[in-house]
Amino acid sequence: MAFKPPAADIRDMAHIQVHREDISLDSPTLVEGLPGVGLVGKIAADHLVELYDMEYYASAHCEGLPEIAVYGTDDPDVRPPVRLYADADRDLLVLQSDAPISPSGAKEFASCMVSWFEANDATPIYLSGRPAEKDGVPDVYGISTGDGAGMLAEADVNPPSENGAITGPTGALVHESQRMGLTSVGLIVEADQRFPDPEAARALLQTGISPLADFEIETEALVEQAEEIGRAKAQLAQQLQENQEESTSAQPLGMYQ
């Protein structure tokens, strides 16, 4: 009798596990918050989740993600490191990440996530910091895939002033979105390369995310809690600085020529 291998267990397959089927979303906007330069994406994403008391909606079980268990203050329940939170009133999803993503797994991770975005008619807003010496309010500019250029023009977000590339896991997500023809936008902000940068995250929220998602976002807390945010996220920022391949970053193309 020939050996018949066991059927694949969904627990062994890359997938997004939805935990709240009762939450109804209609072509949601999705804000991506992977760790990167200045932790701008993570700070912006964490702010949205806290500000709107968003619901834990789904968890990512994709190749390339660290197999760690995350826990929070005064909460015994553990969760995976990459999660999606939902706000049905604003038709909003936020991708929250508590750990860097290995460069060796970025391609598989991006394929897993972008396929789910497409299947659920989500429009991603990808976030990245560009190392820069800032003078005043950080500049924000946008890039696009699919029909995203029209969204940027309507939101009055400027295009880049120079050639460049987005690296790291967010770069893989943008690349996969472009490959699949998914409509998305990427927001790039001047940010501090060495330390968490709440000021740059605030610029992303006010200049890009708010007009693109079409709702006002209160950001005063980011200013008032800047020092506290910096302390809380300093260790992750240091880890990313030491392992730059795991960090999302926007860089001039001259660095690669």
From TrEMBL:
It comes from Haloarcula vallismortis ATCC 29715. Residues 235-257 are annotated as: Disordered. It comes from the Archaea. Transmembrane segments: none annotated. SUPFAM superfamilies: Cgl1923-like. InterPro entries: Proteasome_assmbl_chaperone_2, PSMG2_sf. This is 3-isopropylmalate dehydratase.
